[in-house]
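Exercise 7b. Backbone tokens:
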């Protein structure tokens, strides 16, 4: 299967690039992290903590965490290849911060497009596949490549507070026109 997509290139390592967006812009100047590179196989585990050195009160309500999955080839002269992407908001529509374990379906062979805030999880199934899933929800993970994230877990649910907008301005974090309209 690899030779059909990559020709004679040999997949060697894989890494995940993490981006923190607010609207179409990085949340702050250094809102990008790369994971460690691990050897390519069928089930990759990074087991790595991503830390942006921010407090929860500094996060705008529309903060989006985006990931590119990057394949690195054994041949040194070959460029890296983005083989998937996924994005998720840190707060739900009701303002609740995500916590616990989240499984995100990866968009195959796409790259994060910061302009597309709607590009969350891949949910494309054929009609036949959707019929099978309706009959047995346990087979759904068989149709998607997934990124498993572990967010911090809190004793009580944590919600976004609009009173923290002053702190966002104090730390000079970005605000979109949509945020201005919400105010």
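Sequence design result:
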């Amino acid at each position: 299967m690899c030779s059909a997509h990559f020709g004679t290139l040999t997949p060697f390592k894989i890494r995940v690039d993490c981006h923190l967006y607010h609207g179409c812009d990085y949340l702050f100047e250094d809102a990008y992290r790369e994971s460690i590179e691990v050897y390519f196989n069928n089930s990759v585990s990074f087991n790595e903590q991503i830390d942006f050195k921010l407090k929860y009160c500094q996060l705008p309500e529309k903060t989006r965490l985006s990931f590119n999955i990057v394949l690195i080839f054994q041949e040194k002269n070959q460029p890296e290849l983005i083989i998937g992407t996924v994005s998720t908001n840190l707060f739900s529509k009701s303002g609740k911060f995500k916590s616990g374990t989240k499984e995100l379906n990866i968009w195959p062979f796409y790259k994060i497009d910061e302009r597309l805030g709607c590009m969350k999880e891949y949910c494309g199934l054929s009609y036949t596949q959707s019929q099978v899933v309706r009959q047995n929800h346990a087979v759904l993970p068989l149709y998607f490549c997934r990124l498993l994230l572990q967010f911090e877990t809190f004793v009580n649910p944590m919600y976004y507070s609009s009173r923290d907008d002053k702190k966002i301005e104090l730390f000079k974090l970005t605000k979109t026109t949509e945020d201005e309209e919400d105010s």
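Instructor comment: Residues 2-176 form a domain with the Immunoglobulin-like fold (CATH 2.60.40.150). The longest helix spans residues 127-135.
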